[in-house]
Amino acid sequence: MAQFTPTLLLTRPQMQAERFASICQSEFGDTVKIIVSPVVQIKSETPDIQPERFEGFIFTSENAVLAAKNLWPHLQGPAFCVGDRTAKVAGDAGYESISANGTAEDLIRMIRELKPAGPLLHLRGRQTRGDIAQTLTKAGLQTTEAILYRQVPAELTDEANECLLGESLVILPLFSPQGAKLFLKQVKTVTAPLRIVALSEAVKAEISGSVQAKTVVSAHPGGPGMIDAIAGLIDA
């Protein structure tokens, strides 16, 4: 592999990072070197709540779906999901999933337009954005939230730190403001040319000014949009 082959540094939680790495390997082949180095680990929590009394569920991450499946294997019902991947995981888990195919704001808009029977339950991680439950409740759709997991920092691997100190281009996809924040906490020094692909403007805002890097925002907040943005940087 050539000395200056770009490095794709994936810092999502292990499961999501490995899945995205597989997609990128199929898409880009040996035109990039892929390093998986999560800056976050997922730790489960058990809320004091009876989910059976709710008429529908809101998911803003696949981690929440998987945690709910682990806690309540037979729970079913309508599931309003922020994006297509979360909706697929929810569908596989037995829910009647509907995707907003976008951001938290898109999800709120979709639920308000659909006006589902309530009450609704937002099953989420400890770190979240958008105040979904409060916003929907104020709009007349009674919504409660319950925390199923938390994200704890994990250290970058030696290999990840070495690539950030190298001479080859490093492409860093960031999928959430929390992921961006945790990366900034873990990174020591960056001397390599760094290009950041942000899932959204909120992610870009979290990282802007903190490291010397050019940041591009995905044209659409999802995996395919991120792949397209990464491809653009590789081609450039």
How would you describe the overall organization of this protein?
This protein has 236 residues and is an alpha/beta fold. It is built from 9 helices and 11 strands. The strands form 2 sheets. The protein has a 6-stranded mixed beta sheet with strand order 3-8-7-4-5-6. The relative contact order is 0.16.
How is this structure best summarized?
This protein is an alpha/beta fold. It contains 9 helices and 11 strands. The strands form 2 sheets. Strands 3-8-7-4-5-6 form a 6-stranded mixed β-sheet. Strands 2-1-9-10-11 form a 5-stranded parallel β-sheet, with helices on both faces.
Task: Describe the secondary-structure layout.
Blueprint: E1 7-10, H1 14-28, E2 33-36, E3 40-44, E4 56-59, H2 62-71, E5 78-81, H3 84-92, E6 96-99, H4 104-114, E7 120-125, H5 132-138, E8 143-153, H6 158-164, E9 170-174, H7 177-186, E10 194-198, H8 201-207, E11 214-217, H9 223-235
Parallel strand pairs: 1-2, 1-9, 4-5, 4-7, 5-6, 7-8, 9-10, 10-11
Antiparallel strand pairs: 3-8
